[in-house]
Design a protein that fits this description.
With 262 residues, the protein is an alpha+beta fold. The protein has a single domain, classed as Roll (2,3-Dihydroxybiphenyl 1,2-Dioxygenase, domain 1). Helices cover 22% and strands 39% of the residues. The protein contains six helices and 15 strands. An eight-stranded mixed sheet has the order 2-3-4-1-12-15-14-13. It has a seven-stranded mixed sheet with strand order 6-7-5-8-11-10-9, covered by helices on one side. A hairpin with a 4-residue loop joins strand 13 and strand 14. The chain is globular.
């Protein structure tokens, strides 16, 4: 079962890895993970090993990468398209030396852009069309760190309000974009008049939040009219709780409770 595989991949990690997740906000929510689908695991492994400066932990059919404030879960599965063109256009990570990282990726055979002098970030396209913004932060102590998830949809103000209300985030601006600040990640919203496709089934299949007291949180969302694709359930054998929902614009979202207790 896909849900079980995804959760097992997350839960089998060591306590050191799980401690990478941020402390939750007042609503009990923090950044959890991004989930990538591909049939070409070997090429993806080479890409993420270099970009995140780490090697994955293998759990059944899954490869799990750790970085500051988040996890990347790699699953062998078909995908229906690149991340660009979906609601979640890309996600961003910070690295200590952007130039050196891009050189390593290019030397490994990946087509990399040449950033402008002094550029703080650059967009790259990984295997399968997963789009990543790589940002330069020489003060970073970790190998890589979560920075933001970038959504593209026509009504950015409505998205900002929904994510702030639903997950207890703080409305803000990131440069010229409406945004919501969450522990471990910034959610950024760009006006895209043509609209975007749902994320489910694409290379970047879904995003995940870790939620303290998930059962009560799901009941609160249900009372507010939120519909769940997979309702709250407790998996005693894994000491975990989970739920899946889709936002009003087509972003598939996984909620978990238990990652920080392992």
């Amino acid at each position: 079962m896909k849900i079980t595989f995804a959760i097992m991949g997350l839960l089998s990690l060591s306590g050191v890895l799980l401690a990478q997740l941020s402390a939750p906000n007042a609503s009990g929510v923090s950044m959890g993970h991004v989930h990538v689908r591909t049939q070409d695991i070997a090429t993806h492994e080479k890409f993420w090993n270099i970009l995140l400066e780490t090697t994955p932990v293998t759990h059944g059919p899954l490869q799990v990468y750790r970085f500051k404030d988040g996890l990347l879960l790699l699953q062998k599965a078909d995908s229906s398209g690149a991340s660009e063109g979906s609601v979640v256009n890309h996600f961003a990570v910070e690295v200590r030396d952007m130039g050196a990282t891009l050189k390593k990726l290019k030397a490994a055979g990946f087509d990399m852009p040449t950033p402008k002098p002094g550029a703080a970030g650059v967009f790259i396209y990984g295997p399968g069309g997963v789009k990543v913004e790589v940002m330069h932060n020489p003060a970073l102590k970790a190998n890589a760190a979560s920075h933001h998830i970038h959504f593209c949809q026509a009504d950015t103000v409505a998205m900002q309000k929904w994510y702030a209300k639903t997950f207890g985030g703080k409305p803000a601006m990131r440069n010229k974009f409406e945004a919501v600040e969450m522990p471990g990640v910034n959610l950024t919203f760009t006006d895209f008049k043509a609209g975007s496709a749902p994320t489910r089934g694409r290379t970047l299949d879904h995003i995940g939040f870790e939620v303290k007291n998930l059962e009560a949180f799901c009941k609160k969302l249900e009372a507010a009219g939120v519909k769940f694709d997979v309702p709250y359930k407790r998996v005693d054998s894994l000491n975990i709780s989970l739920a899946f929902l889709t936002d009003p614009w087509g972003t598939y979202i996984e909620l978990t409770d238990g990652l920080n207790r392992w």
